[in-house]
Structure formats: structure tokens, C-alpha cells
Amino acid sequence: MIRSALVLLDADENARCSNVLQLGSLFPTFQNSFHLMAFSIFHLILLSICCLSTQTVLSATSCDRGYYLEGANCYPCTPGNYCPDGYRQLPCNPGEYQDSFTSSSCSACASGYYTTVSGSVICNICPIGFMCPNANQDPVGCARGTYQDSYGSARCQQCSQGYYSTTVNAHQCTICSKGNECTRPDQAPLACRPGTYSYDDGSYSCLACPTGWYTTQTGALLCSICPEGSECTRADQPPTLCRPGTYSSAPGSTCTSCASNTYATEYGQVSCKPCPPGYECTQSDQQPRACAQGFYRDGSMTSCQRCPTGMWTKNTTSVRCETCSVGYECPTTDSSPVPCRIGTYASNINTASCLTCSTGFFTVETRSIQCQRCPRGYYCPQPTSNPLACPPGTYSDYKQTVCTKCDSGYYAPNSTSIECLICPRGFACAIPSVLPQVCPVGTSANYGAVSCSACSQGYYSVKNSSAACTPCAPGYFCDTSKECPKQCPIGSYSSAARSACYQCTSTCSTVVGVFDCSTCITAKPTGCQQFST
């Protein structure tokens, strides 16, 4: 609005403005809104120059804001400029624009737009692949690892994880291909190292092969499982065959030492073999070793064991020990049983050494299971020989190594006597090995006599083998023990057991055979046949 002024337009000016307004019909279409907006602003500028520049302001003293004073005329502020005080028209600063007439100020470019010149009617939109953080500066190309796929952006975007961009001004990032990793978005993909893999596109980092898997390739998409019979201690190296003494029974497993009583002598085993009976496997990486003779092993034992005392094995690789029979000895476990020698025996099985017969016992055969008792009447000085008969004059009871000599007064006239006999009455046994000796006339002997005893004075024995001497009867006398008693002559007498008669007194002189002088008897001396009736 113009104060105190009258604006007049002549006919020529109206015609010129009409032509300007018809310019829009010459460009009916535009490639995009940016071109359309630019043309519209250009159209307005021409219109203002055409239609307003020739305005006549009469007697102008001051102008409203949005107008400026030039001479005595007020003119509307044109696009690209601003008129803050009604006197001046100033160009918009870089980063600002004004697309209208009669503006008292400029507008800042919107985010993502820019202009680097003064007096801009419009702001330029930031192109793709660039960012415009400052409206008064030229667009800045997106750095490596960033991109911008839209117009009018104030900042570039960081490539997403698993994407990369190695060029500037990128309007998009490239996805990391499988078999690679993209740990930095500003660098090209790195192939997965051996032992790692990437099975899908867009991987930020390669994955380590799981335990029991491996890959020796660079840029691997997948890992391979470690086959049975081997182990993969390092994922970047090929499988290692299980050593002898170890095995791996399943894919992806590690090699395990063979259990007790099993073995594996080759590389790459999937199982261990059981140690056969009769053998031992103390080293699981070696062939089974046969049990030596005298040793054995059944399936439950961890190693070969020596046979118990008194048992034996027939050969090597034994699974059990043999029984040593009765009558045999097995002094060593690695040899056959030995028959018991003469004079020895084995009554039990599994005897390590035959026993010598005890005192008074014997055996005269091999393989004896017991010793025989030495019979009565014999003696066995050696257990290896037959019993010997006790000689006459000796005897033996059970368990005798020697015969016992008969005691005095006893006798054993035969061999093999089991006892000595007591010497009978009327006999003497001076030598125990012979029969009793008859006591002669005039002697006697009681039981167990070593010698015959002569009859005492006044006694007599007129028979052999007398057990006792007979005393001389009264009225008789025995001047010898070997004859019958003799009658005392007339005029003499005797009491019993007298060897002589005594003279009688004169009063009894006519009496025969008296034992005193007052009595006369008729005596019959014992043992004298002439007196018997």
C-alpha cells in the first residue's frame, strides 16, 4: 500500500503486462515440482517488473514495510529481496530466500535445502547421495560407509549392519554377500577366515564353526561336521584321525580313550574292540597280549592273574585255572601236576606240595591220597618202604617207627608180635626172643621170672617147671633140694623145712620119724612117691 500517492497505468503498460501473463501457456508441462516452482517464481518476477516498475507514485514521503522508496516513488519489494523499513530493499542472505512481493523479511531454507548466493528467490533441494547440514553451503557428499537415497536430507545415513559403501556420494549401501563379513561399513567385505562361515547375505561378522565342525576354506558358507573316527580340535584345520587307543563313535565328537579291557590299534577307529578272554590289554593302543602259562583272565578281569597256589594252566591264553587232582601236587602254576612220590600223599585238591607221611605211616605207591597206618607187629622206619616185621623178642603197637624190646620177664618168641607175654610159673625168660626155659629139679620160678631160683634149705623140688619149692615135712629132712625128703632115723626128729634131723633123748629113741620126742607120727613127705598111698 502506498501512502499519499496515486498510481496510474497507461494503455501501453496494460498491454505489456497482458503479454507477460500469457507466458505460462508456452510451457504447459514440467519435469518435476522443482522446475514448476522455479518457473512460477520467474514468472512473478517478470510480472512485477513489467507491471509494477512503471508505477507512478505521486508525492510519496514514506513507504510501508515491504516497499522501498526510490526518489519520490514507493516500489514493492521484489522476490529475492526484503524491505524491512519502507525505505530500503535488501537481498536475502545465502541460506535464505523470498519468493513473494512486498516482503519485509526473508525465510530460512527448510532442512535439506540450500542456497549459496544472495537474493535467492528459491532454495535448492539437496540431491540424493548428498547431505545439506548448512543451508548457506553447497551439498556435502555422503562419506564412505554412509548413504542418502532421498532428496532434501540434512544428514547422510549410516549403512545398516551387514551393509557397506566404499564410494562417496552413495545413494544406497550394498548388502554383504554370504561367505563374507562387513565389520566396517566403509570397507569392502572380508572373506570369512578358515574356521568361520557366513551362510546368509547381510552378515556383520562371520560365525565360528561349532565344536566338532570345521572348514579350511576362505569365504565358507557352511562348516562341515567332523566325521566319526576323527576329531576337530581346531575349526580351521582338517579333521585329525583318532590315534590308536582312542575312538570317536559319532560325527562331531572328540576322540575318547578306550575303556579298560578294550583296544584300538589303528587310526580312525569308531569303536574299541573288547579284550578277548585269555588275553590282557594293559595298553589300549597295542594288540592284546596272551596270558602266560600259569596265568589266566576271564572276561571280568582287567589283567592276567597268576593261578592260585595249587592250580595250573595247560597252556597260554587260559581263561581259567585247572584243578590239581588228589594224589598230585602242583608246585608251580605253569606246569602239569606231578604225582605224589612214594612216602607222600595229597588228600585234597589243589595241593601245592605233597605231604610226607607222619611217623608210623607209610605208602609204597605214587599218587597216594592217604598214608597207611603201620600194622601191629611191624615197624616203619621210613614212610617210603613197606612195613618191617618186628623180630622175636620185640613188639609194636600202632604208629611205630621202631619195635620195642620186651621187658625183663616177658618174651616174644615169634616175629610180628603185637605184645610181649609174661613168663609163666616154672619157667625163666632170660632172653625175650626165645621161648621160656623150664626150671630144672631143685628150682622154681613165679610169673615173669628172668631166671629159676634154687630151693632154699629144707625145701625141695623133684619136678621140672616147678612154680614153687615144697617145704620138707616134719619128721623128715631135705639135705638136697633135688630129692624127696628122707625120714629121720630112729633116735632123731625134725620140724618142717629142715635139712637135717635132731637127736632125740633116750626116752624116744625107739620112735621113728618123730618131729619131737613126745609124739610119734607117720609123715608122708610131699612129693615123695614112696610115701604116697
Automatic annotation (TrEMBL):
* One Pfam family it belongs to: Ephrin_rec_like
Which SMART domains does the protein's record reference? Answer: EGF, Ephrin_rec_like
**Where are the bilayer-spanning segments?**
none
- Span of domain TNFR-Cys: 488-528
Query: Which InterPro entries does the entry link to?
Result: EGF (IPR000742), Growth_fac_rcpt_cys_sf (IPR009030), TNFR/NGFR_Cys_rich_reg (IPR001368), Tyr-kin_ephrin_A/B_rcpt-like (IPR011641)
| PROSITE patterns documented for this protein | TNFR_NGFR_1
- Name the PANTHER family for this protein: INSULIN-LIKE GROWTH FACTOR BINDING PROTEIN,N-TERMINAL, SUSHI, VON WILLEBRAND FACTOR TYPE A, EGF AND PENTRAXIN DOMAIN-CONTAINING PROTEIN 1-LIKE
Protein name (database record): TNFR-Cys domain-containing protein
Question: What is the organism of origin for this protein?
Answer: Adineta steineri
